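User: As part of a screening pipeline, I want to sanity-check one entry by hand. Below is the sequence and the SMILES for LXEULUCI. Please return the complex as structure tokens so I can compare it with the automated output.
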Amino acid sequence: MTRSGASHPHAAAPPSGVSSITPFRRLMIALSLSSLGHWLSVLALTAMAGALTRDRDFQGQAQVIGAVLVAMLLPAVLLAPLAGALAARLDRRLTMIGADVLRFALLVSVPLVDSVPWTLASAFLVACVTLLWIPVVGACGPGMVPEELRDDARRAGRLAAYGTAPLAAVLFSILALIASGSFKAAERADLPLYVTAVVFLGAAAAVAALRELPTRDEAGFSAQSAVKLVFQGLQPERTGAGQAAGQGEGQREGQAARPGLHGLALALVGVSLAGGAVVAVAKVYAHVLGGGDAGYGSIAAGLSIGLAFGAFLGPRIFGPFSRRRLLGLSVLVAALALVAISLIQNLVVVVFVSGLLGLAAGVAWSTGNAVASEATGDRERSYRYLGAVALITGLLAAAAVPPLAGVLGDHHIKLGGDSAYDLDGAGLALLIIAVLGLVAGLVSYRRLDDRRGIPLLPDLAAALHGNTYTLPEQVEAETATASRAVLGRGVFIAFEGGEGAGKTTQSRLAAIWLRDHGFEVVTTREPGATKTGMRLRALLLDKETTGLSDRAETLLYAADRADHVANVIRPAMDRGAIVVSDRFVDSSLAYQGYGRRQPVGEIAQVNSWATAGLVPDLTVLLELPPEDGLGRITGQADRIESEPYDFHDRVLRGFRALAEADPDRYLILDASRPQAEISREIQDRIRAILPDPIPASTEDITSTFPAITDA
Ligand SMILES: Nc1ncnc2c1ncn2[C@@H]1O[C@H](COP(=O)(O)OP(=O)(O)OP(=O)(O)O)[C@@H](O)[C@H]1O
Ligand SMILES: Cc1cn([C@H]2C[C@H](O)[C@@H](COP(=O)(O)O)O2)c(=O)[nH]c1=O
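Assistant: Here is the complex for your manual check:
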């Protein structure tokens, strides 16, 4: 049984316009070229290692190629903070141009020197230079756009940095095809190296043409140790000496209370291991399957194209499906794809199944990011954490899988009669990693699953149709709950949104409309609906209240809410009234969680206790850009309204994330539209949750609908 997800009449369009800022656009061109060079250099240097070891046995060749990958990943794991600190002291333009020219020179030198040690050394040096380049671009980009476009700028940067990977793989395959038809075996790896070098030269020229680079004085450099990020996990960040001294216990409790985060780490490791293992042996595996370097490039292309599609399409296709379930499932699909890659020894099949593995990994990446952001309330930090887990797992895969393939060696398995099955070392190593991935997938699915008892297949099928699956007995129970509303159980409707979005206006309009149709309605608000609440409101919103810690603020809002539920909401609902509240728990999740960057999961727990688990039957989310909402407010801004734009922007995004995570409970509306239009949509939705819907025809016939105007 399914029910429709919340209607989304207004999908908050991200502010557009970064591409119209010429210096930023030019920087993105330079970043795209440099990133293209980076991805090409990984393929070209590993191909060179393969060419230089072509006379060695499988084991020797796999190990040298694995060593090149390790040399290219190790600096990012060990030296990122050092490189960040160094880059911050250097001139930005010179660093970027110098880094590109250096990479050009290193790549040209590799075929000229033509030795394994120099190829390894160059791989390491190219990666070190890349490490200097990355923080400079990271620091320049956001400074070139206005504050409100910073998120867009970050997204554009990530697209340029990662979106070029599939292009690089396709280009490499084409170059490898050309080289195989034109050069001797010993020289076939040279062409991709020279082309990569030229791409870096192009990136240097693009930076040289960029006159408007911010100077070195501006802040914005950040490069954290991947190891530290992984060990720190998604624990709340310690921000002060007091916290460090006194809150260890609380943090441990918080971590344990955040459901699914252990499953999250395991899922990320599982999927990165599967992807990393394919990359680690793709070169030798393609050779075993008779594909040469073009085959190697095709496997990389399959993987990276799948990854891009998965990351982009996953959240769109599986919209209403539980993200936690989806994360566990995508790890299982990636591991199963790896089983197929290891056993079906046909290059074309391997390329396509690599695409499937990439697709699953992309879905896991975007879903993992959403799950982590939801738990921490900090998208950037979650993103960095995911990147660090993928990097370290990739490094381990590159270091361990090729030697494992060599040690395992080839196996000739007799299947009875004349038939036999050949399983080479690479295939066997991939099979072992696939089994590990399956275990990680199963355990993480169990730990992450937040819809236990709901069968998976109908749930998935409903999600693909844009709906959320509901058990028949659940629907009956919900209908019965609604029916009891007029018989003594009440209905609870909350209005949420940023400052000046129109919550007070719309909650009043809804209440008038409901009363007009005979319901007992209690309108209320947070904070400050009770006597104690009014004192808390004064304390919380008074600008004289300075130095209030984020945790104390959260608890004061929760205290107001506890009093509100116990003395106003519950009693009204118990006598069957409809309660309409201007703000409820989601305000704390959005303001104190996303706005103040505190863990959303922990705030939800505190509030669940404070409200004895009360959840609105419907939450109307009024979305309005902060500048518009704050512009609507007349009079002095209070303590929260006075927070910077960034804060209110995080709050807006926080509300959206909450609504998207539970679409059935929300009605998301574009609050910039005329009041009457908004209130009409709210009435339609309220009608649907009332036990005895007010027939629209009644209104038409009797014209009882009051002419409501804003007082
Ligand atoms: N749809 C609308 N279009 C234009 N103005 C509106 C709209 N809805 C409300 N307003 C006006 O915006 C101002 C703020 O509205 P309202 O007090 O309802 O917002 P709010 O979300 O409750 O604000 P706050 O966060 O301060 O509680 C009021 O002057 C109101 O008349
Ligand atoms: C319930 C709640 C509120 N806030 C903030 C949001 C607003 O800035 C004020 C309340 O003012 P309003 O004019 O009545 O909307 O408080 C919050 O930060 N956390 C909460 O839980």
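Points to compare against the pipeline: Confidence is low (pLDDT under 50) at residues 1-16, 238-260, 481-487, 693-711. Residues 497, 499-505, 632-633, 671, 674-675, 678, 710 surround adenosine-5'-triphosphate (ligand 1) (CB under 6 Å).
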